[in-house]
Fold this protein.
Amino acid sequence: MSELQRKLLMAMQEGLPIISRPYREIGDRIGMSEEETIRVLGDYLNQGLIKRLGVVVRHHELGFCDNAMVVWDVPDERVDEVGEWLGKQHGVTLVYRRPRRPPHWPYNLFCMIHGRSRGAVRERIDALTLTHTLAEIPHAVLFSRRRFKQRGARYVFVDAKGESAGA
């Protein structure tokens, strides 16, 4: 990996600037054109060096102070269908599948719902369970008690001597 490519990864882990041309800004900072920055990031995605580019929404700062993880025990043959449907619904900010951990944890589909109040979150969950035959699927609602800092991936680069070289 070239020094310039390493600088790009280090710049990306700080997050994208909230401007109309963030890749141009990052490229300018490290000496790459906007087009080269986008191309190299696309190469990293295709190679699997970067798994995905995502957004960390600081929902508390936006007034969404209550949130719940709804966990569902979806029949395996329906989990993709239900997960895709949930991911398209208003108020659902995250959906993912995890293995069940019997006998105490039967749930295999998780979705996060944020709201401005606990009541608003419960209303959203109630509305979801009335549609798409979710009422028949066992689920539990887990409201957050604490807030943890969210951040993107951090990379550590090791030089030829095996020593940490930044990030």
